[in-house]
Write a structure and sequence with these properties.
It is a single chain. The protein has 348 residues and is of the alpha/beta class. 32% of the residues lie in helices and 22% in strands. The chain has 13 helices and 12 strands. The chain has a 6-stranded mixed sheet with strand order 6-7-8-3-9-10, sandwiched between helices. Strands 2-1-4-5 form a 4-stranded antiparallel sheet. Strands 11-12 form a two-stranded antiparallel ribbon. The longest helix is centred in the middle third of the chain and has 18 residues. Bound molecules: adenosine-5'-diphosphate, iron/sulfur cluster (SF4) and magnesium ion.
Length: 348
Amino acid sequence: MTESPSSRLAEPLLDVRDLHTSFPIRSGLLRRTTGEVQAVAGVSIALHEGETLGLVGESGCGKSTLARTLVGLNRASAGSVTFGGRDVLRLAGAERRAFRRDVQMVFQDPFASLNPRMTVGELVTEAWEVHPGLVARGDREAELHRLLRQVGLDPAAATRYPHQFSGGQRQRISIARALAVRPRLLICDEAVSALDVSIQGQILNLLTQLQRDLGIAYLFISHDLAVIRHISDRVAVMYLGRIVETGTRAEVFDRPRHPYTQALLSAAPVVRPWEHEGRVVLPLEGDLPSPADPPTGCRFRTRCPRAEERCSVEEPTLVVRGDHPSACHFAVDPGPKVLAEARVGRLR
Ligand SMILES: Nc1ncnc2c1ncn2[C@@H]1O[C@H](COP(=O)(O)OP(=O)(O)O)[C@@H](O)[C@H]1O
Ligand code: SF4
Ligand SMILES: [Mg+2]
């Protein structure tokens, strides 16, 4: 392809359209299905080669289910997923194996994803048995050492076990393991959420460097706005199974339109208040409603300070307002009046 990797004209690497994933609710002695949890309720996102899409939203909003559906760990109930032009939900055989190689995941808890009885060397090279053509047998030791160095570990780590490492180092092991199969997309699901802030920074910088060197795309999932802001090129904000706002990092963080994004941002601790002049302060109260029984109309209406009658009957769709899409009937640019309230809000 002659187009640059970031070109919006290029076909996306990953193209998700109107994806739904539901889980049956079973109850009673006979475990009859009595309802369903709509964990992912019509999500469309696109991700281009070599870019980072940050997916942010509160715990329980469906981020992990979306990720797991993309890699086939959960079954989609409707919608389509295209990766490199191929229909992922219908892949089989060799094509499916190639896809499973192209898309790797890094999870929050490396203890759960790293077998404690395997050495780091065994863990990182395990997939080469499944994909023997990837690295010739004679080159494997050198390639293992190169991978460990690439993620900032000493090659001597190869003979040790995961429990002998700190949380940050274990995450480096997980990343090396993912890189070993030369993926085109890495899905990081809360990959730094369990780490101390300083270690988080180191792992985020490592991921940024790896992306620069290898051109991998990231779907970076986190409930932490600061982390998403640090790493993302583009951002999608998820609420109760749906994307409510999406745009470039600057569009979403500097000019949020959806009341949920505005509330999330105003709830986040302000590290450098002078950079947030005019921040809109909106309260975010109450809990996420159950995805088994979502509110009618706009899913955010039970917590939205701007809700009006129309919101309970008509579900808003993602429409470009200002410079990027948001799903709110009354999505507003934070105007002077709101800004004035925001300043008062901050003084309180
Ligand atoms: N296997 C499952 N069976 C039933 N419900 C599930 C299952 N996995 C997730 N859920 C539900 O789906 C919703 C979204 O969960 P999840 O995708 O883990 O959210 P997040 O990653 O944003 O915290 C939650 O209500 C959760 O309880
Ligand atoms: S559509 Fe209504 S309830 Fe939903 S976010 Fe907009 S104002 Fe709030
Ligand atoms: Mg999750």
